[in-house]
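Sequence in, structure out. Go.
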Amino acid sequence: MRHVFHQNLRWVCRVGFIGAWLIAWGMAEAGSDVPARFPPGPWLTDVRIHGPDAHWPGVFPHDPDLPTMSVRPGRHGRKVDARQTAFRARSALGHPLPEWWQAFPMVRSFTPVPALQSEQLYDDVLRLRQWFMERGWLDCQVRLEVDEDASVWGRWLNRRAPGLARRATFVVETGARWSVRDWQIEGLDTVKGPVRRAMKAAVSVEAGAYDGEARVQSEAALLQVLSAGGFSHPVVTSSLIPDEATRSVTVVFLVDTGMRARFGPLEVSGLPPATVERLTRRVSAAVPEGERWRGERLANVEDALGRISSFAEVEVSPGAQDARGHAPVEVSVTEADSNGLFPILRLASEPTLYAVEGGLGYRTGIVGRQLAMFEVRGALGYRSLAVPVGPNQFWGNHGPSGEVALLSELFLSPLSGLSLVGETEARLEPVQANNVFSSAVRAGLRVRPTPYLEMSATPEIDYWRSFAWPSQQALWDEWFVEPGDPPLPPMLGRHRPSFRPEATGMLLRVALQWVDVDRPLLPSRGGALHIDAVPVGAVGDDLFWRFEATARRYIALGSERWVLVPRLDMGALRFRDPTVPSVPQLRFYLGGGNSLRGWGVARANPPGWDGDVNDYRIGGNVMGLGSLELRFAVWPRLHVFAFSDAGRTWEGLVDRVDRVDRAAGVIEPGVRLGTVLPSAGLGLALPTPLGRAAMSGAVRLREDTELVHPPPMTAFHFILVQSY
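Output:
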């Protein structure tokens, strides 16, 4: 025990020394010269967008003097709505913008501010004017002012490099906002009744405030209707007829349908001859030569081929019509870059856990007679769960963690999205007082019917093991009761033989994944659904089933800066004989920075358990988690959020007598709403090149947890979640 304490004490001292060094280095950096990594000056250190009469007494404008673009004007106050207009207008700028974190001394050396490019700033004047005009301010004028940055960050730079820290201010005079009086379609007389009605229904422009996005969407929708009606090369343009007296416009759509067409030959380019031949044979059935032209089929082919990871870009378009009215279907493919090395990095930190993993992955596509994708990745790291549990008592777990995976996918039918997959993976990680190892070999079918939906069915063979390293064995023996030893009731806070230290199994895994979001890391719209089900599986001679589902929805509240994120997770595991020992790797865990945030990793255990990190038992056979999160984008790459989580793991759906010693009469509580563990807190999140980083702090809202040794009432988490 003393050896483990001293060993972990050395780790704590090392971490403290590194932290003190970083603080001292940051303080020294604050007074040093301009970092060497900065580009030659001048630099663009601040960008502002406001009206001609705006006043800036500090960080935020006192009067931004911009019109509101809020969906519900005045809901947050005129000034807040005007700031949101400036925030959204920044998306029109093409010049690299300074980031908020560059004002911190410790990161200045690693994130140099962008060099000021005058030509690009003047191009942004036109971009910004066009942005406001598309939203109804047709008289908008924009001028650029570049002067010395007088902020704290700018003064720091200018003291060391006089005159090189510059601020770009875009002064916007919007004028009055024009409205739409009416819209018209010229050229309707060239099409028949059904197509004419479909064209009228496709126009999304409405009377009221002018919306340039609706105008563009209407043009695209009219092209789609005409293409579906048999016209291979329709042309749709639009113009505005202004009325100065009423400050309104009439939107006129000019339609030139061209000639009706039929499908011509299929022409594939950008691939080796063997692939062209195979792809032509597969795709020609969707666009048979001589059949009436249907534009939606080209879109379907483009979507289907775009889901093949071996292709970086796919474009399907009509070729020139011949004398018979046949238009060839041209498929242009750009192969994916074969140099697919990518880094792997995962970080997690909280009061009872410190974890880091790093490694490399390689992904490549094979384009030949068969279309295939191969990926291999490996990562190695270290986890430490070190907690003092009393006077002169110290317990924890620390050791290596990592993973190895080999994935392959053979695309059998490119149009239907059907493919054959094979995967081999192994993972090792310390969790509380347990070291768990799992490996799996699976092969089966996967189908992607749409760009957002993926389904698979894969039989697999698994091997699971839970063990202690030799240096931990003496401590393990003190707490672990081997199978066959007399067990003690769980209410006494002691261990019992409820898990299998080693097991092999076979199962059928069925998975469904639907993801439709506007941004991958911090979405503002859309949703995601993940279902992982094992309808039948066997551990030795014991049959079981398992189900897990996660659902998220992203709802923008008036502005993309405010996003409401409801989340629901649920899962259940059941053996045909509930009295047999379970497998830790099949159970459900709750707690951590990406789960129940008021608890540590895997510490939201079932009622009546020990609840301490010393307990090697983890997770439950039933899991439920509900979460509600409200995000606010302070800057485009920095979000603050408030959240409330509530969830728990349980041993079963219903109450039952202890499955080990029925004579003891100990009851394991099933799912009860009264035992749910709620928590609430605040946090920060930002996207990084390696994934989504988040820091959060939460407090438990319920003191009685039905655990013998409940954790502290507060928990702090830092995580870096990488999606590859």
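Check: The first strand starts at residue 43 and ends at 50. The chain has a mean pLDDT of 79.
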